[in-house]
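Continuing the series of single-chain predictions for the mutant panel. This is the parent chain; the variants come on the following pages.
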Amino acid sequence: MIQAGGIARVHFRTRLAIDNKLADSQFDPVTIADRAIEQFLRERLHAQDSGLRIIGEEFGTSGDGDDYWIIDPIDGTRAFISGMPTWGILLGLVMDSRAVGGIMHQPFTGETFIADPERGARLLHCGTETALHTSTKTNLADAILYSTDPSIIEQGGLTANFAKLANACRLQRWGGDCYALALVAQGSIDLMVEGLLAPYDIVPLIPIIEHAGGIITDLQGNSPLSGGSVIAAATPALHEAALAYLCARF
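Parent structure:
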């Protein structure tokens, strides 16, 4: 991941050519950095000859089988092209229908959030390894709530209910992408809600949040291996309260 991060740093805060993956008036940016990072990670994973399928945002699926690696070469490309350091390189591992390992690497800040079943969730930064723990907050009135963008909440059909949830929380802010989800695991953010995520946006972050003591599900209470609308919470009590708001019929 460090070498993949080097690819990102070469292009970050430069005048990049930006392609749009969508037609009509919508905008889904992709850059040379997205493609180069995913190609690099695919080559490294193929070299391991693990026999696992590989799923990536830019180049689709290669291989077959139920177990797989999943790659988002730059989660938060909009932040990346804006010069904001809230993007990250995501790599996850799914085995037996469970997200068992994940990495979120932010090369500009030099932070790597990582989790696996043997060593739990931890942050690697400046040569130091620190265990990750979510906050212990249980009441919405004390909670800091994040979501990346109002349009994502709107696309998920959550605008009205999200507004009521935000009013019940101590503080609500926009922005962050994968970085904000990693900060749920770190304990600075208590609650994050996203709408209509793709699997590669969220699967690598599932084990990081879970091994840090948090809970992350879709609106049906299931592990969000297929993406969709997602709630990440520091504690089960916060998760239950947020889910009640988002699924309520006011």
